[in-house]
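Section 4.2 – Deliverable D4.2 (structural model, holo form)

The reporting period included a commitment to supply a predicted holo structure for the target in complex with guanosine-5'-monophosphate. Inputs used:
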Amino acid sequence: MKVLEQHILDRGQVLGENILKVDSFLTHQVDTQLMKAMAQVFKDVFQEAGITKVVTIEASGIAPALYTAEVLGVPMIFAKKSKNITMTEGILTAEVYSFTKQVTSTVSIASKFLSSDDKVLIIDDFLANGQAAKGLIDIIEQAGAKVEGVGIVIEKSFQDGRKLLEAKGIRVVSLARLGQFVDGKVQFLEADA
Ligand code: 5GP
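Output (structure tokens):
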């Protein structure tokens, strides 16, 4: 997605060998016009799939997931990272190792929000090693629901996330795909949409 690539070039910052900071439009301050445009692209790709829920993980997946759910006309559910005393009923959980925080946390979704009739689109801000998406797939499958695809804003294609998800037979659609960072600069591979 060319507009997104332009935002990454203009406003992204490479940190070290494999981290991209995009806090001015995606992970902290959110560019709502960009979110709308990205949501439309995810809708065009997945509209035939009969999506009934969009699922993401807090916090940075919430913005793109919410806009996507809105254009698809379905609810958005975000997996929670910390236990909450108000989550008293059945909870589905998975362990997720965070690439950026380097800690494992238990993420959870209340079982009442997912059922075996659901066709789920997972949306997340980044795909690195695929651990966040894998945890969400685990939870969705515990509910007996079907994962129709994973929509990613920025895929770091030099990490193993796509491989891991495709090995599970899951369709991955990334709006920007990054090759290895060279001299602190981002290089793009051909995106999926
Ligand atoms: P994965 O679970 O695929 O290894 O990593 C994806 C998660 O880690 C995303 O939800 C995102 O929050 C975070 N993440 C991974 N790589 C980056 C990065 O380069 N920049 C930022 N800002 N977050 C990242």
